[in-house]
Structures are given as C-alpha cells and as structure tokens.
C-alpha cells in the first residue's frame, strides 16, 4: 500500500545535489551507452556487407527511430507514467543493441538500430516530463540544463570507453558496454519515486483526458511561434557536428588535428551548462537562449574566413560555448509552456519539432554544399542561427521569472 501524498517540496529546502543520483545517473548511463555504440554502428554494418551509403543509413536509422516515435512515446508516458517509461526505454534500448551484436543479417541489424532510436525518444520525453514536475520552478532551468549536460558527458565518454573495449575484445565489446550502461540506467530509473496526479479541487469533475489532436489545437499558438524557433535551434545544433570536421578537411588539416579541435569544442560545451541554467533561472530564458544562437551564428558566419588551425579553433570554441550555454534550453522552454494535465502529449509534439529540425539542418547543409559550396552552406546555417535568435527574442516572455506549476508530490 502506497504512502499518502506528501506536500510539494518547498523551494527553499530543495537541493539538486540531493536528487543527483536518481535524477541524473540514468541520463549519464544512457548517454554513455549510446555514445559507446554510435562510432561502431557503421563499422559493424560494413562487416555485415553494407556499402558505405547503407552503413551511413544505419546510423541515420537511430535518429529516424527517435523522430517517428515521439508521439507514441507521449502515449506510453501518459499510460504507464514517467518512471516505468524510463525503465522500459532502457530495456528496449538494450534489446536493440543485443539484436545489433548477435545477428549476421543486415535487415535485423537495421531493426536493432531503429529500436535504439525508439528508446531514445521514450527516455528523453519521460525524463523531461518527470523533472518538469518533480523540481520546483525556481530550479527548473538548472535541473534540465544539468540533465542535458550529463547526457552529453556520457555521449562524450562513451566512445573512449568503447575504444578501449574494442581494442581488447573486438567490435562486439562496444555493444556489450552499451547494453550494460542502458540496463544500468533502467535499474536506476526504477528507483525514482512515482509522481502522483494533482488532486482535483473539491466539487469539480476530473478534466477530460487530452489527446494529441486536442493538444495541437489548444496550443497551436505556442507550436507556431516558439515551436518554429525550436526547429531552427535544433537545425543549427545538429549541423554544428558536421561543420567543424568538414571545414577542417576543406583546409586540408590532418584528421588528428580535426579531431582535437572537435574534442576541445566539445569540452567547452560540457563546462558551461550549469552556470547557464542558473542564469536562466535567475534572469530569464531570453538571457541565455538568444545569446546562445547569436554566438553560434556569428561563429558559423566567420568560419568560412578561417585559414588555419588557430582561427578554426577559435571559431570551433565559440560554437562549443554557444551550444553549451544552450544546454537544456529547448527542454526548459517546452517545460515552461507545457500544461500540467496532458504534459506528455505537449512534450511529445515539442520533441517531434526538435527532431524535425535536427534532421533537416544537416540535410540542408549537405544540399547547399553540393549545389553551391561548403562555405555557403555554413554561412546559411549561421543565418538560420540568427533567425532562431530573433524568433526566441520576440516570443519568449520578457519577464525574468520562470513560470509553471508547483511540482507534483512524490510517493
């Protein structure tokens, strides 16, 4: 028998440090698991007889699986709750990785990659929904920025751990490492306290269960304003991963130098997420969201003017800093505008728009690089960042205070 509901945690007594392991531990492990297999997926596909384009498609299937599963993820979270959705996502990801490593059929390998992407959408939505309701509004940006930051740390560390495992035991070891990590995330997720539904005021009927269609109708203004900004932000962020290595190759830099520059930019990215979250909580979302896009846009517009290692490194570090201060930004803005009743449906649509931007950004860069030039593609990406900054500056509330509902009690 469950204990009676407790009162919401007062903001004055709340501490992110106190909830660190159950709240952020699964994100670190989930990121580590995915980071471990991502560099290995195309190599495994090649071993199974795939051509280079098909091997690249195997990696893309992870993103496609996430894109197409955002709406089903909201239904799963609404039906089973955030805690069990997180557990199910870890188990499903582990099954997908197991299918990848223990099959010799390319079609089944593709199915495993798609399953990993599906689990990603369920996990990301459930963890965002949980943290939105469990953390006081005054700490929301710090909590969600830290959530995004520790996921990035896991994604950053995963390939290094996988490299050691592959060197010692071969390619399958990377998948074993990934399976252990995502199942560990599921085990930690199972320890998260359940969230209880908010009580219905005396004398009132419970609100009707929302649907995806009603959510789209009721919040269409948010989706058509800030949602467009989210699409643009995601397009820029996804493109940045290709911009640095491609321009380094254009400058004929050694692959080791390009990797070092990319790694240093990633290091800056991971150092600034918590201070940025604190600024968003204390000053407002605009104080971070708009500068994030302006810095990335300016750096991308200047990148085609770089001519060597030093100037490219400066541009790359600026991109990493701009992206880093925006860690958790999309999740925080979505949480601010999501309704308490039917939050998972809103966040499912919100994440779908984010994933659409992430898919379209690199595709547009590729098209412009092929039809015009790589420099033109990078410059247009910089202009998209400025458009994102303008959209966010116009539509984000000018008040410095965050808004949202009181956290739902745990049991």
Structure in a nutshell:
This protein has 18 helices and no strands. The chain has 411 residues and is mostly helical.
Give a structural overview.
The chain is mainly alpha-helical. It has two domains: 168 residues, MFS general substrate transporter like domains (Growth Hormone, Chain: A); 184 residues, MFS general substrate transporter like domains (Growth Hormone, Chain: A), CATH 1.20.1250. Helix content is 75%, strand content 0%. The N terminus and C terminus are likely disordered.
Q: CATH homologous superfamily of the largest domain? A: MFS general substrate transporter like domains
Q: Please tally the helical runs, counting DSSP H or I stretches of 4 or more residues.
A: 18
Radius of gyration, rounded?
Answer: 21 Å
- What is the first-to-last residue Cα distance? 11 Å
Oligomer status = single chain
Largest sheet: none
**What order do the SSEs take from the amino end to the carboxyl end, as H and E?**
HHHHHHHHHHHHHHHHHH
Outline the low-pLDDT stretches.
Answer: 1-10, 404-411
Shape: globular
- The secondary-structure class comes to mainly alpha
Helix content: over 70%
Task: State the name of the first-level CATH class of the largest domain.
Answer: Mainly Alpha
Question: CATH topology of the largest domain, what is it called?
Answer: Growth Hormone, Chain: A
Number of strands: 0
CATH architecture of the largest domain: Up-down Bundle
Number of domains: 2
Summarize model confidence as the mean pLDDT: 86
Indicate the proportion of strand residues: under 5%
């Amino acid at each position: 028998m469950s204990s009676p509901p407790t009162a919401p945690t007062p903001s004055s007594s709340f501490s992110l440090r106190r909830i660190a392991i159950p709240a952020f531990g699964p994100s670190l492990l989930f990121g580590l698991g995915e980071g471990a297999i991502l560099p290995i997926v195309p190599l495994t596909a090649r071993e199974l007889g795939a051509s280079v384009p098909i091997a690249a498609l195997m990696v893309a299937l992870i993103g496609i699986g996430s894109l197409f599963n955002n709406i089903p993820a909201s239904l799963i979270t609404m039906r089973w709750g955030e805690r069990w959705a997180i557990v199910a996502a870890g188990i499903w990801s582990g099954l997908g990785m197991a299918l990848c490593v223990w099959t010799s059929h390319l079609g089944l390998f593709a199915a495993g990659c798609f399953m990993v992407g599906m689990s990603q959408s369920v996990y990301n939505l459930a963890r965002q929904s949980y943290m939105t309701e469990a953390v006081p509004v005054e700490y929301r940006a710090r909590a969600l920025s830290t959530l995004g930051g520790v996921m990035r740390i896991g994604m950053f560390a995963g390939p290094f751990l996988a490299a050691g495992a592959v060197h010692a035991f071969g390619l399958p070891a990377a998948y074993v490492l990934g399976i252990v990590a995502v199942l560990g995330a599921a085990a930690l997720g199972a320890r998260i306290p359940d969230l209880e539904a908010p009580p219905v005021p005396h004398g009132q009927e419970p609100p009707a269960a929302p649907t995806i269609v009603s959510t789209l109708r009721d919040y269409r203004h948010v989706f058509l304003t800030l949602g467009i900004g989210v699409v643009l932000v995601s397009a820029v962020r996804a493109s940045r991963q290709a911009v640095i290595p491609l321009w380094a190759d254009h400058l004929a830099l050694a692959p080791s130098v390009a990797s070092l520059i990319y790694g240093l930019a990633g290091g800056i990215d991971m150092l600034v997420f918590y201070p940025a979250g604190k600024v968003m909580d204390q000053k407002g979302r605009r104080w971070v969201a708009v500068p994030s896009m302006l810095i990335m846009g300016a750096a991308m517009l200047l990148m085609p003017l770089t001519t060597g290692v030093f100037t490219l490194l400066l541009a790359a570090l600026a991109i990493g800093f701009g992206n880093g201060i925006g860690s958790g930004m999309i999740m925080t803005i979505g949480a601010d505008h999501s309704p308490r009743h039917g939050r998972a449906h809103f966040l499912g649509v919100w994440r779908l728009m984010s994933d659409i931007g992430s898919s379209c950004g690199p595709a547009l860069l590729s098209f412009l690089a092929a039809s015009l030039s790589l420099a033109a593609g990078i410059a247009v990406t910089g202009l998209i960042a400025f458009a994102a900054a303008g959209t966010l500056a116009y539509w984000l509330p000018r008040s410095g205070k965050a808004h949202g509902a009181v956290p739902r009690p745990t049991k």
